[in-house]
Amino acid sequence: MNINATLFAQIIVFFGLVWFTMKFVWPPIAKALDERAAKIAEGLAAAERGKSDFEQAEKKVAELLAEGRNQVSEMVANAEKRAAKIVEEAKEQASVEAGRITAQAKADAQQEMNLAREVLREQVAALAVKGAESILRSEVDTSKHAQLLSALKQEL
Predict the structure, then answer these.
(1) CA-CA distance, 106 to 92, in Å (whole number)?
(2) pTM score > 0.70 for this model?
């Protein structure tokens, strides 16, 4: 192989081109690559932060749902207890009212029975007076007296 001036000129031009590329072309390319790598790293970090934020939000939502369910079940239990208490109070009131009505009905029945007895006594007294009057008006005869007493018994 022949080493001549063209080869030296080509080597000089090649090194000049390498120097020019390293001085003026390579730094903007490297800067752009570094910026892009930084943006990609920021994006990946943001994705990781978003993922962890999402996981935390999911946990918080699960906690809130559990708390809400507990509150709802507690409210339902309280409502059931209150309903049972209201039913018991209503039963007690109904029992008291039934006792009052029963006592009033017994008192009314007793009063009616006393009134009926009084009316019956008056009627018996009237019949006894009527029977005695009939006996005294008629002559004294045992057979007539017996007939009058049996008729008096039937009227009673």
Answers:
(1) 21
(2) no
CA proximity to 156, closest of 114, 130, 108, 120: 120
Task: Give the contacts of 134 (CB within 8 A, at least 6 positions apart).
Answer: 148
Specify the amino acid at residue 88.
Answer: E
pLDDT tens digits, 5-26: 888 889 999 999 999 999 999 9
Provide the residue type at 69 as one letter: R
Beta carbons of 149 and 131 less than 8 angstroms apart: yes
Are residues 121 and 153 in contact, defined by beta-carbon separation less than 8 angstroms? Answer: no
State whether residue 75 is helix, strand or coil.
helix
Torsion of CA 73, 74, 75, 77, to 10 degrees: 90
What amino acid occupies position 122?
E
